[in-house]
Amino acid sequence: MGIDRRTFLSHTAKAAVAAAALGVIDMRVWAQTVQDAPVVKKPSLCNMCTSECGMHIHVKNGRPWKVTGHPDHPVSRGKLCPRAHAGLHWIYDPARVKTPLKRVGEWQFEPISWEQATDQISDQLKRIIAEHGTESVFGAQYPRTTGSLYLNRLMHALGVSTTQSHEATCQAGRRIAMSHTFGAAFDADWENSDYLLFIGRNMGEAVRTASATAFAKAIERGAKVVCVDPRLSQSAAITEWVPIKPGTDLALLLALCNVLVTENLFDRQFISNHTNGFVPFRRHVVQYSPHWAEEITGVPAEKIRQIAHEMAAAAPHCAVDTGWKAAVGSCYANSTDTGRAVAYVNGLLGNIGQRGGISVPPGVVFATPQFPAPSAPTAPRNDGVGTEYPLASAESGLPHLTMQRAKEGKVKAGFIRHFNPVRSFPDYDHMRAGMRALDLLVVFETHMSETAIEAHYILPEPSFAEREEVVKAVGDTVAMRTKAIDSVHPQTKSFDEIITMLAYKLGVGEYFSFTLDQWNEALLADQPFSLADLKRAGTLAAEVSDEPVLPAGCGSLIPPEQQAPKERPRAFLVSGGDRNPVPQLFTPSGRFEFYSQRFANAGFEPIAKWYPPKTGLDLGSAEFRVVHGKQAYHSHVATNNIPILAQITKDYDTNRLWMNRSRAEQLGISDNDTIRMRARNGRTAEARVMVTERVHPDMLFSPAGYGNRTPYYKTSKELGGFNPHDLAEYQHETISGHTMMSELIVEVERA
Amino acid sequence: MTKIDRRAFIKYSAAAGAATAFAASGISAGAQEISRTQQGQRMALLMDNSLCVNCQSCRVACQNENSLPVSEKYIRFDYVDSGTWPDVTHHVNRHSCQHCADAPCVDICPVEALFKGPQGFTHLDFEACIGCGGCLMVCPFEVPVISEEPASGKPKMYKCTACRHLISQGKKPACATTCITNAVDYGPWDEMLSKAEKRVEALRKQYPQASVYGKTQQDGLGLLLILRTPAQEYPHLI
Ligand code: SF4
Ligand code: SF4
Ligand code: SF4
Ligand code: SF4
To answer: What is the fold of A37-94?
Structure first.
């Protein structure tokens, strides 16, 4: 094809406008021409949450007009959630960062050239490293391909070892738990399951598109689906709902283990051939009877027994979903062990690698690009990973601890890309104070987020629709974002360009001796298609390894040298078969570990035992636990500034706190009243309530994603809303170091 | 990005409609569906409320597809909660144009802005509409919304148009394409009805009062609903 379609498109539109202005053609014909302009479908990946669903951006007259799900992409499978549709409006958002900015006062900036900005940044960083060492620097991001390559490579080239992500507010506990039991945080094979038990996970509202589709497929197929949740969520509403006292899921799971073990309902063959530590585990769980658990959780003992029996009958084609954030991720002091207990139930059911059980899928292995690479840095980390937190993930780190070190004057410089820890981590004051204590904070962003506005320099990137990125392995495919439209703000630069520019100025340019295209081509060297093919298609079926491949961001936290030597049987999830061979797992023993020697060595319980949340289970007469969770149409305190999504919140008045009706009556509070909350730490806030029967009496449910503090988000400001991170205090759980987001108790009165 | 599209599209829809239908016959993909719609086969949207997680994706996809102003939406939801903690149930129902076979809105519209299409849906000529609200007065489901069109400042009526520009080319409406739980489907009316009846049969084990709504109301509805509980519980159903 000779002429670029985009050029053709814009010419047609311009010609039509000119003709119309001159009165050469009548408006009717002109409007028809515009309407009939061809639509070009450009493959992309959504950027509204971390799932990066594959999609097509439909471009007409040079403007994106709508998006549709990419049919071949494993995370969208032709569907998209509301945020993806609204993402288009992000491209033209007035709160976009349009040029490089330099801080000139409190939340005040003035434009600066790229040349000057990068010169000043590199001079300052060199001075900081010379004076305070590389341990005084950190890099942080939402961990996706481009950021992980470029930011981490730059940090490593400089000798900085502290690279971080959002995980401490997400799945930190789950990842340690699953790594140390069955090797990695694998998902359940929802679609093909006969029985699914979800512990606090809300598949319909915390959306990964194709996961929600698979969840619904299971329901439609007639599988039994049970949602354990202190709240009747939209997911619970289309399944069987088991209400539970918040923070007590661990007790429920241990009681399920108790029934499976004491009533001999477990998979003997799996236990004897593929597990370690069953004997002490068996002894250990005898104490956790369903009656004991009923006292703690409020779930009737009979219901617990029933679930255990039903799951045993469906085994191995059943699963306790491995969760994400919720009860097993970063909410409670006992979340990591709740995650281990989830794994135990699956181990007893013998469902690892089985149809409808825990899926251990094969994946794509990229070729290794042969460009000069920096060696792994040896400098100590500044967030305690590997030292105070021997099991915590070095990929994700603990940004809230780094902010503490910054307040103590030990951390001096930070580089943050597309990540907003000031607003998305508990304790806004703490996170903000940490950022402000830095001598140099550089934020790479598309928007004036709460973190961006604390930066010394904000370096603007084009939006997802305007840039290309490092290719990504997704299931058995490779996918990528392509450039759908021209830059809306010509002063923006893509991340690969920015980092390469900085690297040269910092004297480590030798590690960036490639273009993005060259890097992508090198990764795809073993694939049956070219980069050009991939740019055209967006998602392509790829060469799949015959070994399990750890899903990005969910991989094992057991260092490879501590895993069992690999002699893996090669068959994994093969649909249809009644029994698949059990894969060797990424644990130290290569087997399922009921007993973890690594936990014991690190000073933790080798077998998870019951303990309550840090804030206890006894609440005062006016006290509530604040628990937050997602609505499908918002994510990451980043979307409520988008008018088309904010409108949903307004239409249904959904940014209120849910309060149980009988508790509200006792306190003289009515629907829509404003309440005053005082946290045990003395902090106060006000919010409006929705009085409902759908929430546990102990709990105030706070829909997540509201309460932006950046003055640049006009729509969000007008919308208002409460964010529990304003009340929560800086704290860290002992095993993974996560943020314990639901260890927040408030006393409530009517305002 | 969208005003011209929307207005141009709706303004000149009658002329464009014929042209697109003609052009579409040359497209090979989905040719079978196209020939069906050319024959004017009666089609239906099927909303399985028992699978809906209320994510609102259908609403936003529809807003983009039809270039709606931010505050207007063709899809709304009704919620019915009952019981007391912990014995609580929560049901949703999509509230949007039901596409009545016998559509009083079409009969009353003084300027013939509302009209029935070959697939049985009720479409709107946006330019012709004078925003008088006659349709709203007679609609049994309280669907039409009269609101000022931001570009022209004139009152207009907003309601689901069944994505006429897509279905006339044999494509699915945007809400059906995007639905993350496959709660929304689109196909020949009788196929959708039998699919719904099968699903209701399965649902009855748990919800004895589950039903298909729309087989007979207004001589049959172009939007069929699967309900887990009796229709009377939902504020906009008759
Ligand atoms: S897209 Fe589907 S699941 Fe989401 S609200 Fe619409 S009908 Fe319900
Ligand atoms: S539901 Fe109302 S607006 Fe829709 S066709 Fe029926 S009468 Fe007309
Ligand atoms: S508001 Fe528009 S569509 Fe409704 S009756 Fe009046 S002119 Fe017709
Ligand atoms: S059929 Fe089209 S116009 Fe109607 S609700 Fe669905 S997307 Fe909107």
So the answer is: N-terminal domain of TfIIb (2.20.25)
Give the pair of three-digit tokens for residue B207: 């919800």
* CATH assignment, A172-362+557-601: 3.40.228.10
Say yes or no for a CB contact (<8 Å) between B60 and A82. Answer: yes
Outline where A376-514 has alpha helix (H).
399-407, 421-424, 428-437, 495-505
Tell me if B220 is assigned to some domain.
yes
**In this structure, which residue's CA is closest to atom 1 in ligand 1?**
B179
Contacts of B81 in chain A (CB under 8 A): 692-694
Domain A101-165+368-470+477-536 listed as CATH 1.10.600.10: no
Q: B238 lies in a domain?
A: no
Q: Which residues contact A502 (CB under 8 A, 6 or more apart)?
A: A118, A121, A122, A154
Contact A69 B178 (CB under 8 A): yes
Domain with CATH 2.20.25.90 in chain A: 37-94
Number of domains in chain B: 1
Q: In the structure encoding, which two tokens stand for residue A695, read together? A: 């929430």
Which residues are A541's β-sheet partners?
A477
Digit-coded pLDDT (tens) for A14-46: 444 444 444 444 445 555 666 678 899 999 999
How far CA A88 is from CA of A44, A363, B64, in Å, comes to 12, 31, 9
CATH of domain A623-750: 2.40.40.20
The tens digit of pLDDT for each residue in A236-266 reads: 999 999 999 999 999 999 999 999 999 999 9
Residue contacts between A and B (CB atoms, under 8 Å): 160
pLDDT in tens, A206-224: 999 999 999 999 999 999 9
**Dist. CA B168–CA A378, nearest whole Å:** 64
Domain span at residue B142?
3-233
CA distance A485 to A62: 6
Beta strands in A230-386 (DSSP E): 240-242, 275-276, 318-320, 362-364
DSSP B161-196: -TTHHHHTTTPPPHHHHH-TTS-EEEEEHHHHHHHH
Best of B6, B13, B59, B60 to disrupt the A interface by mutation (most A CBs within 10 Å)?
B60
- Is B156 part of a structural domain of the chain? yes
The ligand that comes nearest to the alpha carbon of residue B219 is: 2
What three-state secondary structure class fits B79? strand
Residues 12-51 of A with CB under 8 A from B: 28, 31-32, 34-36
> Which of A355-359, A395-399, B186-190 ranks highest by mean pLDDT?
B186-190
Residue B106 Cβ contacting ligand 3 at under 6 Å? no
Domain with CATH 3.40.50.740 in chain A: 101-165+368-470+477-536
Measured in angstroms, the CA of B39 and the nearest CA of chain A are apart by 24
Q: Do A86 and B60 touch (CB under 8 A)?
A: yes
Residue whose CA is closest, atom 4 of ligand 1? B55
Residue span(s) of chain A under CATH 3.40.228.10 come to 172-362+557-601
A613 vs chain B: nearest CA distance in angstroms? 22
Min mean pLDDT across A226-235, A716-725, B21-30, B131-140 is at B21-30
CA Rg, chain B, in Å?
A: 18
Top residue of B6, B27, B51, B57 to mutate, by most chain A CBs within 10 Å, is: B57
Q: Which candidate, A49, A154, A52, A134, places its Cα nearest to that of A444?
A: A154
Q: Answer whether A444's CB lies under 8 Å from A459's CB.
A: yes
Q: What is the C-alpha to C-alpha distance for residues A407 and B63, in angstroms, rounded to an integer?
A: 47
